[in-house]
User: What shape does this take?
Amino acid sequence: MKTLILLTLLVIAYFPMRAQQVWAKAEKISGEESRGAVVNEKSSGWEFALALKDYLEHDCAKAQETNFGREIACLLSVMDERYLHKIQVTGGDVAVSTQIQKPVVYNAVKRIEKYFRAKVRKGCFTVKDRSLFEHVIKVAIACIEEDSLDFEEALKQSKKDLNEQIQLFQRVRLNSIYE
Assistant: This one.
């Protein structure tokens, strides 16, 4: 009798778990299908709203003097403010932990910045490179407030190829909310 009750309880316990697993798989599949439409649109690009106005009047005291110019230095400063959050580890302790929001995007921009710094050192940094780097930073700033999972996934898949990451940033169209 006890074994029959135990067996019945196990069977009853198994089916709801199984139903939950089936439901989770169905959700995952439908989520992939809905993302599939966006992935197919990926060839045309993404659209982000940019809420950036008067960034040159922003306190750029943190912006170190760079060879990129004041505009890019201020944009980098704004990006760091929005992506990096310093959190005190424990009360009374002087140790501070830095959290990065959307680390895939932030790290991609830092790699691109390193690439352009090398071009500046070599003396082959052009006006086109400058406008491209400015666009990359503005995309990163706009990306922080957007639902950018597909864009982040594309960056993650191409993290070994810097030129492909730059092309992904070029595919993003920015819409200013002030215009």
